[in-house]
């Protein structure tokens, strides 16, 4: 990962939604227009796979499809890798929604524009973590600056996540720990490759 982004530890994330609430409060978002969401996987506890949660927002991709799909130049990729959307330039055409494989840009019909996570760039510029990261009680969600520091055993994709090859998202996952969960996780990965 070369640009700023997130690291999500699937062993630590309990799906509490503190990150979602912190994002909404920090950015004045209503629930229906939240930029971050928590996606539970394997809620029915199928025996062939682990139950884990994906806390996702904009992945600030190295090759952002939203930026490439926007005809009005409403998107900007900062030097640190953060992908910012400028609402004043937005035509409301929704091309960015169509091009993003992660469903990140969200059209707000009452305002006629798209909006998305900006990785709390204002907080990062002040030397603070994004609100979602600061609020995570289990430290499952971490901020990874554009330093290119070692991420340990983090990987670019997990079962249930969109193939990252196209956009190269700046989101990494630390897989679940423990012999049983690791075995189930590996079995799920193997089945999804078929």
Descriptive overview:
The structure is a single chain. This protein has 194 residues and is α+β, with helices and mostly antiparallel strands. The chain has a single domain (5-193), classed as Alpha-Beta Plaits (2-Layer Sandwich). Helices cover 23% and strands 18% of the residues. It is built from six helices and nine strands, in the order E-H-E-E-H-E-E-H-E-E-H-H-E-E-H. A three-stranded mixed beta sheet has the order 8-1-9. A hairpin with a 4-residue loop joins strand 6 (106-108) and strand 7. The radius of gyration is 17 Å and the shape is globular. The two termini are 27 Å apart. The model has no long low-confidence stretch (mean pLDDT 86).
Provide tags for this entry.
three-stranded mixed β-sheet, alpha+beta, Alpha-Beta Plaits, two-stranded antiparallel sheet, 194 residues, 9 strands
Quick recap of the structure?
The chain is an alpha+beta fold and 194 residues long. The chain contains six helices and nine strands, in the order E-H-E-E-H-E-E-H-E-E-H-H-E-E-H. The strands form four sheets. A three-stranded mixed beta sheet has the order 8-1-9.
